[in-house]
Each structure stands twice: as C-alpha cells, then as structure tokens.
Design brief:
CATH topology of the largest domain: Rhopdopsin 7-helix transmembrane proteins
Distance between the termini: 25 Å
Structural class: alpha+beta
Order of helices and strands: HHEEEEHEEHEEEEEEEEHHHHHHHHHH
Number of helices: 14
Strand content: 15-25%
CATH class of the largest domain: Mainly Alpha
Number of strands: 14
Number of domains: 2
Helix content: 40-55%
Radius of gyration: 31 Å
CATH architecture of the largest domain: Up-down Bundle
C-alpha cells in the first residue's frame, strides 16, 4: 500500500471531516430519539373460550357486530359456566380463539405490511391442585425419558417438579380486508411446549406463575387479519393443577419505525455504493496489482453495501416467509468480513518483515476461527428461522435444545479464539511500533516517512474502531433503560426519548460512517499516483524492513516525498 489520502490530509481537513462525522451522529441520534417510534409494540390478549359445533371449521370470536356487540361464528361462549369449566383439568371440549389485531376504542384495526413480523407468546394460567400434583409426581418418578426435572426436598422424601409438558393442536388462518372467508395458513397437531414455573407456587389454591411459551413466529406480516384456534391436551403425565385461563402477547414491528429505518438504509446504500465504486476506480488507476489490505477493504465495502440494500421493501409487495432469515444471513456476511478485515489489517502492520506478499493463507488459523463461529451460528439460524419459513410453529429450543446449546457454545469458543488472536496481534504491533519509533531518527528519510505513515494509519484505525465499539456498547446499555417519560405536572415539558430507536439509528450511521471513512482515508492518494511504475510509493511497506532495500530508493523519490511533506506543512 502506497501513500494514502489519510497521510496527505492536512490537520484542518482532517478536523473538518471529524466534525462532519460527529454531526452525522447527532442527526441520526435525533432522528431515532425524537422522530422515530419504538421498534416494536405488543398487544396483550385473553383467549376466548369457544365451543365449536363444527369441528372442521374455525371458531371466529368476532365475525360481525350486532347492536355494537361482537357476534361470533362457530363459537358458543355460553355452553358452560366458568365454575363448570374449571372442574376439568383441561378444556378438553373447548377451543381457545384469538383474533388479531385486537380492536381499540371500539374500532377494528388491521395489520400493515410495514409491521414486518409477528411473534405470539402464550401464558397458560393454572391453579394448583394437590391431587393432580400427586399424579404428576408419581408419573414423573416413573418416567424413563427424563421428561421432568426432579429435586429432592430437605427431608429427602419428596420430589419437586418445576416444569411439565403440554400438547397443542393449533390452526392459523389469515384474511385481507377484501376477503370474505378465512383461509387456513398453517396448522399443527401435537405441538409440544414445556411450561416452567417456580416450585414455591405449589401451594393450595395458588396460581402457578408460568413462563411464556412461544406459539409461532411469522417473518412476513403479509395479511391484514390473523385468526388463531388452539386446543390444549395432556402430555404423557399430568400437570400440577387446573387450567383457568390462557393469556398471551402478540409482538410486531412498528410501521413508522420500519419506514424511517428503510429510508435510512436506502440513503446509506447509495453512499456506500458510490464510495465503493470510487475506491475501486482509484485502485484501477494504479499501475500495480492490489494488495491484500486493499482487497479485503473492497470486500468490506461490498458486504456493507449488500447489508444496506433495503430488501425489506420487497415484503411490502410480496410475501417472503424467510425475510428474517435472509436479514440474519446478510448481517452474518458483514460481520465475517469485518472481523477478517480487523485481523488482516493488524497483521499487515506488524512491521516485522514477515508479511511480504502476504495472502489469505497467512491467516489460516484466524480465519478458521471466524468460519467455525459463522458456521455454528448458521446451523443455529437454519434450525430456527430457516425452518420457520415452512413451519412457523417450530422453535429449536423446544425441538432440539441440545443442538441450540451446542451451536452457541461452539460459536462462543471460536469467538474467544479469534479475540485471543486479535489481542495478540495488537500486542505485537505495539511492540514493533515502539521499536521502530525509537529507530526512526536513524533511518533514511524516505524509509522514515513511510514508517511514520504506517504507524499513523494503524493508530487511526485502532482509535476509530475503539470509539465505534465502545459507543455501540454504551448505546446498547442505554437502550435497555426505560424511555425517559415525564409527568404531566412536570415543570418542564420535555419530550420522550426513544432509547432503543436512537441506539439502532445511531449505531447504523456510525458503522456506515466507519466503513465509508476507511475506504476514503485508505484509498491511494493522487500524490502517490504519478503514472511512473518505479515510484517508491508503489513499494510495499513490509519490503522496507530490510536494510538492503534502501538501495531501491532513488534520490528522485526522496526529493518528491520531501516536497510532499513541505506542502503538507504549509497547508497546516
């Protein structure tokens, strides 16, 4: 790598660029904090107990209105009293029906395709019954498959079980505003879910505080209305109490956030595409082959460009049931290239003379760690969201929990190995930089200027990366705080800050600015492109670590570099 734009910039221009970047961050924070709604919203619902006269048709709790009252279809709510219902352990003859979205202020609402995704969680509520619990203890003690988790009490005679299994028969139907009838979208029989609760809830007439269970997740919200029918039935062993009610939560993206987010991505897609084209044309103007750092920087720009492409706009017009998996795949490509760039950049700036004409093969161990982590996470995502494109009810944490844990464990170990390699390379780089800085006054002028350029570039990247990483962690922590809300009687009428939206928009702008600045700053300088093949700027820095290479430097090259240094000083 010859002379770069970064080395030829005056301090005034560099300060102006930093000021512009800081302004971009402020604008992106303002957009996310004050102009953008929260990324997601949720609806809490209570399922309707329906008795279906026609078992082959869906139970519709809100079919039409009569005298401002919702009238259902194939959903008789008055067959049994609530007291009679609670006498059975499960609603064996009943269907639980949920119609989404829920009405608000007496008005029927509809989902928008801008909302992107839909995640539905169920929270079954049980009332503890000692007789049923004793049956569960007995069946749990005799079970062979490790189906329940047992703990011995203090006296060593009693088993305590903190979870049990349910089987769910579920039908999911969809409809648009212009449709008259519901269409079955997906259905599943015998869907197994594990309910976990705290053993302290096992008291007479005490409701079990069960953890939410995932019912399904849709990666594309293509229809206006969704109708859920499900029935709960026993697994091989009994539960600890009687089912009293089934509540739940429906989580979806906010359409307003999606629109602003896609506008932001579209703007950065244009900027990164233009910068990448400019950088490639800059390299093509050189009369030499590109080196490894330049090639990996091209890959980094291409990876960010494909990540910025607003592919979510396609789901506004077409149903794409694998959109979340596609986005995960695009993010994974960017992270792989970014981690590879960091390790290669540090390795190429060790200044120890061991990286002459280096290729990717010189970083086999480091890149292998990245590949192992990426492959493990890809397997996990394929097993979760990849299959959900065909079966929205599946979750790997219920079907194959060991595979999920193993994938995450392997990815974590590989990431730790990569981090070890990166920190070791940074340590070596700082050691060699310290040694070279002590020897700079004794070096020949051209060689000294080139080493100073390398050290400057290395420290610039290290500082920029540290700032981006620390800022990402800070914004991530702030996003987990409650949004700042103020009482109506507050002295100051201050607006609400959406920390989660602010974190996403600011981090997106920051990493885009990071890559764009890298491509601009590390592009070859026109001062180093004179069309002469023999110019010293076209000699790789690593080749200058041997004293015998001083003979390659001509007096003309010395004078040219001194002239550039004088011009830079005059600009300052």
């Amino acid at each position: 790598m010859g002379a770069t734009v970064l080395e030829s910039l005056s301090n005034t221009k560099l300060g102006a660029i930093i000021t512009i970047l800081f302004g971009i961050q402020l604008v992106s924070f303002y957009i996310g904090a004050f102009l953008t709604p929260s990324p997601s919203s949720f609806e809490q619902f209570t399922s309707v107990h329906c008795y279906r006269h026609d078992r082959n048709s869906m139970a519709i709790p809100r079919h039409h209105k009569k005298h401002d009252m919702d009238v259902g279809k194939n959903c008789n709510r008055s067959t049994d009293s609530e007291n009679d219902i609670s006498k059975t352990k499960y609603f064996e003859t009943r269907t639980f029906a949920v119609q989404l979205p829920l009405p608000r202020d007496g008005m029927d609402l509809a989902y928008s395709r801008w909302m992107q995704t839909l995640l539905v969680l169920l929270i079954p509520e049980f009332q503890y019954d000692p007789l049923l619990a004793n049956n569960m203890y007995s069946s749990g003690a005799n079970s062979q498959g490790g189906q329940h988790k047992h703990h011995l009490s203090n006296d060593g005679t009693r088993l305590i079980i903190d979870h049990f299994s349910l089987l769910i028969d579920i039908d999911l139907a969809v409809k648009n505003k212009e449709d008259k009838e519901w269409t079955v979208y997906a259905q599943r029989r015998g869907l197994k879910r594990t309910l976990k609760f705290h053993p302290h809830d096992l008291r007479q007439s005490h409701n079990l505080d069960c953890e939410p269970i995932q019912l399904f997740e849709l990666q594309s919200l293509h229809y206006d209305y969704y109708l859920i029918n499900f029935e709960l039935r026993e697994d091989k062993s009994s539960g600890p109490g009687r089912l009293t009610e089934v509540t739940g939560v429906a989580i979806h993206h906010n359409g307003g956030f999606t629109q602003i987010w896609l506008v932001l991505k579209s703007v950065f897609f244009v900027l990164t595409s233009a910068t990448l084209v400019w950088y490639c044309r800059r390299l093509m103007s050189l009369n030499r082959k590109t080196i490894l750092i330049e090639r990996i920087l091209i890959g980094l720009g291409a990876a960010l460009t494909q990540l910025n492409f607003p592919a979510e706009l396609l789901s506004i017009h077409f149903e794409i049931p694998f959109m979340m998996f596609l986005n995960d795949l695009r993010q994974g490509i960017f992270y792989c290239v970014l981690l590879s760039f960091w390790i290669i950049f540090v390795g190429e700036h060790l200044l120890d003379g061991t990286r002459k004409n280096s290729q990717l093969a010189c970083y086999t161990k480091e890149l292998l760690a990245i590949c192992v982590a990426s492959l493990a996470l890809l397997i996990f995502d394929l097993s979760e969201r990849g299959i959900q494109a065909f079966d929205p009810f599946l979750t790997i944490w219920e079907s194959e929990p060991n595979l999920a844990s193993l994938s995450i464990m392997i990815a974590s170990c590989a990431c730790l190995a990569y981090l070890g390699f990166l920190l070791y390379y940074i340590y070596l780089a700082f050691n060699t930089i310290s040694g070279k800085q002590c020897a700079l006054p004794k070096m020949q002028i051209t060689k000294r200027l080139k080493y100073q350029g390398m050290i400057y570039r290395f420290k610039f990247l290290l500082c920029a990366t540290a700032i981006c990483a620390i800022s990402t962690l800070v914004f991530y922590g702030l996003s987990h705080r409650n949004d700042w809300n103020y009482d109506d009687d507050s002295t100051y009428n201050l607006p609400t800050i959406e920390w989660t939206s602010a974190m996403l928009t600011t981090v997106c702008a920051m990493w885009n600015s990071y890559v764009i600045v890298l491509m601009i700053m590390y592009a070859p300088s026109y001062k180093g492109i004179s069309g002469e093949v023999g110019m010293p700027e076209q000699i790789e820095f690593d080749c200058l670590t041997d004293d015998r290479d001083d003979e390659l430097l001509s007096m003309d090259g010395d004078m040219n570099l001194l002239q550039e240094l004088a011009n830079k000083s005059s600009l300052d």
